[in-house]
Amino acid sequence: MDALLSLFPHGSAVDADGMLRIGGCRADLLAAEFGTPVLVVSEAALRARAREYADGLAARWPRSRVVFASKAFPCTAVQRAMLEEGLGLDVAGGGEIVSALAAGADPALLVLHGNAKSDEEIAMACEHGIGLVVVDNSDDVDRLEATVPPGRSQDVLVRVIPGVRAHTHASVLTGHADSKFGLAPAAAAELIGRIERSPRLHMLGLHVHVGSQILDVEPFAQSVAALSGLGGFAVYDLGGGLGARYTYDDDPPSVSAYLDALVGAAREGLPADAELIIEPGRSMVASAAATLYSVVTVKRGSRTFVAVDGGMGDNLEVALYGQRFEAAIAGRLDAADGETVSLVGRHCESGDVLVDALRLAAPRVGDVVAVPATGAYCHTLANNYNGNRRIPVVFAAGGAARLVVRRETWADLLARDVE
Ligand SMILES: Cc1ncc(COP(=O)(O)O)c(C=O)c1O
Question: Could you please report the per-residue DSSP string of 192-209?
Fold first, then answer.
């Protein structure tokens, strides 16, 4: 039971009757009040992780900032919690600018990314006075020069490909030599020269990001080392990418170990008076949440399929990246063992598997199933496949729960159809 509980948000517990509690709230009562599937966030766990990052970086490199990579969980309640904990926000495009501003962000604390920023997004950045625009290519520079009003200048970072291939899924690798993101050092140096001559742009520093779900610290240190040949700058944004713990066997580096490696490399290769920025996403939010489903059917044959009322409509991580999750019957967390099942979703794809080869304790129709570590990239990749209504997000804290994103309605599904 302890192993299972350790995958749920910090502070989760099991009642005497075996029922899971998240943020002090019983899973059965959460399911009854908000319906299933529902994404439950422990607000205390979310905020504690934000402070762990902010305090850890400030202690090692005082001139520094943590900006949450909104893409990992872009909703105003999560972005607002990050802002309240003193973090900035990284925004990947117009939609995340809109939600960050709705969350109350000071535009000066936003960092805008994108390998294909549109005219509209560049215009939004200039109009709102977004603090840093990370330039990915020379077309970004053309657009910015055409958009920044005369007499003003936009602070920019240039995204550099560090040529580091981290050990992770190919779809979330970004720092390898032939990445679509950023520029190889020689091309970056050329663009830096152009920006330095531009009256509309202020060349402030460099950006690097090696990928996501990275479970060792070495690639991060290597990516910092790759920047030192490009000269000295005032700001270095070292990206995100630290892996999260999804399974019993996962053993990601701690935030401390990650920061030690990153800041150690910065001390060796970057100017001592530079400002450091980091952009954690997945490792900030993954473990702060769990998804609750209801079992719809149990089909026993050559295999046992336990099908729930959600699936790839609310968790695409499995289908996209083959990410392994674990799961348990929320009301029998204390069960000694169970049977081997395939936990599947309700969508019309055989690939709609939430967890394969999973031990579940006597699953029956109506049971609430809890899947931990769904805080990152689940809400944001949710979709309407098979007419799925995207699921709600609930914050649980101190035994009280509140809805922060409502479930989509049937009317929402029709709302964009104009004919
Ligand atoms: C530029 C940039 N920064 C930060 C992140 C956050 O990465 P992660 O969620 O793995 O921490 C990403 C995600 O891929 C990214 O593209």
Answer: HHHHHH-SSEEEEEEE--
pLDDT digits (tens, 9 = 90+) for 77-129: 999 999 999 999 999 999 999 999 999 999 999 999 999 999 999 999 999 99
- Best CA proximity match to 284, nearest among 59, 63, 41, 102: 41
Contact by Cβ (8 Å): 4, 328: yes
Distance 231 CA to ligand 1 centre (A): 24
Which protein residues are within 6 Å of ligand 1, measured from CB?
69, 71-72, 90, 113, 174, 209, 212, 239-242, 279-283
User: Per residue in 202-261, pLDDT tens?
Assistant: 999 999 999 999 999 999 999 999 999 999 999 999 999 999 999 999 999 999 999 999
Show the DSSP H helices in 14-60 as ranges.
27-34, 43-60
Two tokens, residue 291: 């998804």
pTM, two decimal places: 0.97
pLDDT confidence of residue 174: 87
- Three-class secondary structure of residue 189 per DSSP: helix
Between CA 58 and CA 74 the distance in angstroms is: 25
> In what order do the strands lie in the sheet containing 13-14?
13-14, 20-22, 25-26
Can 75 be counted among the known catalytic residues? no
Q: Which of 313, 330, 297 is nearest to 32 (CA)?
A: 330
> How many CA within 13 A on the CB side of residue 317?
24
Q: Ligand 1 pocket check: which of 212, 287, 321 to mutate, most ligand atoms within 8 Å of Cβ? A: 212
Distance 220 CA to ligand 1 centre (A): 12
- Residue 169's CB: how many other CB atoms inside 10 A? 14
